[in-house]
Amino acid sequence: MTRFDYDLFTIGAGSGGIRASRISRHLGAKVAIAENYRIGGTCVIRGCIPKKLLAYAAHYAEDLEDARGYGWSIEGASFSWPALIESKNREIARLSGFYTDGFAKTGIAAIAGTAKLLDAHTVAIGERRVTAQNVLIATGGWPLKPSIPGVEHAITSNEAFELPALPKRVLIVGGGHIATEFAGIFNGLGAEVTISYRGEQILRGFDHDVRNHLHDEMRKKGVRILLNSEVSRIARGADGTLEASITGVPGGTLACDAVMYATGRTPNTAHLGLAAAGVKVDEEGGVVVDRFCRSSVANIYAVGDVTNRIALTPVAVREGAAVAMTLFGGVETPVDHDDVPSAVFSQPPVGTVGLSESKAAGKLGKIDVYKASFLPLRHTLSGRDERTLVKLVVDAATERVVGAHIVGADAPEIIQGIAIAVKAGLTKAQLDATVGIHPTAAEEFVTLREKTAGK
Length: 455
Ligand SMILES: Cc1cc2nc3c(=O)[nH]c(=O)nc-3n(C[C@H](O)[C@H](O)[C@H](O)COP(=O)(O)OP(=O)(O)OC[C@H]3O[C@@H](n4cnc5c(N)ncnc54)[C@H](O)[C@@H]3O)c2cc1C
Fold this sequence. Notes:
Blueprint: E1 6-11, H1 15-26, E2 31-35, H2 41-46, H3 48-67, H4 81-106, E3 109-112, E4 115-119, E5 122-125, E6 128-137, E7 141-143, E8 155-156, H5 157-160, E9 169-173, H6 177-188, E10 192-196, H7 208-220, E11 224-226, E12 231-236, E13 242-246, E14 253-256, E15 258-261, E16 265-267, H8 274-277, E17 300-302, H9 313-328, E18 342-344, E19 350-354, H10 357-364, E20 367-374, H11 378-382, E21 388-395, E22 401-407, H12 411-423, H13 428-432, H14 444-447, E23 451-454
């Protein structure tokens, strides 16, 4: 008989923690999970899911306009932010309830409260003490805000999902996926949006053509993008208006109704008692783990954003499943972080898998590049000047497709299929041998013939 209360104690009921707990339980382990906010974690409560619902809402503005080119006349359309937030909240509550019920049905003990390690096998939740053979840290991340004067007036994505009203003028600080996605949401819903990003181009780390293309398309839709720009101060006037001191605008100040920081997230490890348990963290606070998600302490594992690797839900889920298999499935299961596809649900969206052109050139030396930019069929009648970009990066020596990128409608849906093939070792010749589906944007991936660059 075990001398511990549980075989596995999971801290954090988000994407990674839930998956690890459910599979562990399924494999016969006695499991408890602690959550100090809402069951579901960032993705369900204030990340992927509500973000995508808001992105759908924003796109209706264009759909209504585009419909005119197809013979529709839609008069008197109006939008209600409170109605959208209420619908979104209903769906989030349903999803959170689904996970909570799942715990009860499968016999996972869900404990509400903030958990903290006292030693490698003991967890405190308030006054309560619980012991476990294994502990999983799945506490996710938290949005960062800089310490500039007036930053308390600024929101992050956490609050953006709960605003009582749609701000008329929004300043978004940052240039990553959350910044570009919220720019598309607020702009689509009718706000005047400015992005202030201190880098050379939005979407750092993505392929340069993707970055330039998205920038152009967002600008065409009315988003103002300030590059090499810094916000140094935020002040609130008597009428509630915010004034940001910012480089890159005439006069050096910008008046707005909301300032949103999307300048990165930090791993949630500050008050977890990791030092007491002997768990090592990196310089940014991320739990250091091996390829089995095992920390520096043999019985303590960590998955998801708290490990500071790839901050995506399917990655956290995959890591959680791997830990369960390693601990209770009898199979030491590593996680493969290569060729992880991802999307940016900007307007238009981005889908990407594998290497950017510059990363491929740096890694492989000789590469071939194929790309096309075109007006999708839909916009021949809608009249909208929105172009789609597709791009392939190919290892010249092996003909393997090492990167596939798309910016345009349905990009995330399209890239998921391409990602399967890339992961399976897709070559350019195999793409050429594939018959397209006409008329689609996706068929461009199998009809790219002309090399636009060869290095
Ligand atoms: C705005 C936004 C949009 C995103 N969009 C996407 C997307 O489109 N696609 C995608 O793949 N990813 C997206 N992500 C990233 C995705 O949400 C995360 O990668 C994912 O949620 C990570 O899962 P996790 O299990 O590591 O942590 P989380 O889901 O963050 O879960 C951690 C949980 O731990 C709890 N917790 C923290 N500390 C304690 C403690 N001491 N005791 C008890 N509980 C604690 C937290 O409350 C939280 O519920 C988005 C993120 C954000 C912020």
